[in-house]
Amino acid sequence: MFTHKKRTMTKRDILYMSLTLFALNVYAQDDRAFGTKAETKNSFYLGYGIGSIYAFGASNFYVTTYPFRYGEFEKEPYCTGVFTAGYHGKATKRLSLSATLAFENIKVKEDELIIYAGNYLSILGGIKWKYGKAQRKTSFYGRFDIGLLISADITPESGKVHTEMTLPTLAIQISPFCIRYGGKMGGFCEFGFGSLGIVNAGLDYRF
To answer: Which of 49, 100, 105, 144 could form a disulfide with 124 if both were Cys (CB 3.0 to 4.6 A apart)?
Structure first.
């Protein structure tokens, strides 16, 4: 049979447990608002990148080669930049799998005449990993993507425009330093090298 003292201790324990559960619930609700602890498993994103390997390749090839063929090269290649759209699906607590489409158009002009134009479509699958623990709205991560590049080269030949579809080749992106800020809707900025550019930034939505 319980004594009065024992009954008092039991009530106190129940009170402590109730307060602890209440505090944990408030903390979890607070984290859900910031999109950290109860982080959602999927996200769609749209981005824009600059400085892809194709842009660098066009610059190096045409600047060093075509002066011998066309005379002095006066203008750098014009690049639209890389437009990206993709999906992330959470695999584990720190790892996510991704699928990305990226498109870029590059033109090379000399004396206002287009001597080359190319459309580049990259189809990529990848993995994203988190660094450490998310700090409220801010998280850090890295990503690696690999897939296929499908390109269409457009060149003038004898006064006519010639379009040639090339065989699919390897497309790759390595971005070791990336940052995201936000809750369900957030912004991101990724730094790396490859098909998506040396800098790629945009918006994503988690659900």
So the answer is: 100
